[in-house]
Amino acid sequence: MNPAAWPLKRAVETVRDGGVIAYPTEAVYGLGCDPLEEAAVARILEIKQRDAAKGLILIAARIEQLLPFMAKLPADVTRKLEASWPGPVTWVVPAASHAPAWLTGGRDTLAVRVTAHPVASALCDACGMALVSTSANRSGQSPARTGLMVRTQLGDAVDCIVPGAVGGLSKPTEIREALSGKILRAG
After folding, report:
1. Which CATH superfamily hosts domain 5-185?
2. Angle between helices 118-127 and 5-16 (to 10 degrees)
3. How far apart are CA 112 and CA 90, in angstroms?
């Protein structure tokens, strides 16, 4: 086996076993898990000390991995999303009626992104699904930008840390509302 593939394999096994992982994204390290594993999502919220009502972001390697969580969008909106992906734009879209409240924060919307980060994208591909993605830090603290910072800030609360460099962004990704195009968080 290629030695570089081992951390990815371990991360995939951790996700499939209901664990919490940390991995590099476009700007910071993210915490992630299987979005359908309520207990794993609850662990992430506990680790971050984050209010569940804030909702979470899902990242994917391809839009097809996000479609089960999204309501059907008008064609022009879908084209707008696809034109920005893969890339550092997170879109808040109408959620599918069956999207779990632990992802949406009880709203009828969900934040989604097709990531351009090679490690995060490879992780979604290897897992065969979208993953939860939220900054690796406790609420109110600066997000971790290295695996060592994750371990220092969060200790053993994370089951697996995927090595790699974060992307070139100095701030977390831009967040836009898909139907209106309104910027909710500047990148």
Report:
1. DHBP synthase (3.90.870.10)
2. 50
3. 5
Quick: pLDDT tens for 157-168: 999 999 999 998
| pTM attached to this predicted model | 0.93
3-state helix, strand, coil in the chain (%, to 5): 35, 20, 45
Q: SS3 for 88?
A: coil
Tracing tokens 């910072």 back to the chain, one arrives at 149
Residues 69, 8: Cα–Cα separation, whole Å = 24
Mind listing the pLDDT tens digit for each residue in 97-109?
999 999 999 999 9
- Cα–Cα distance, 165 to 186 (Å, whole number): 22
* CB count in 10 Å sphere of residue 166: 22
DSSP H or E run through 122: helix 118-127
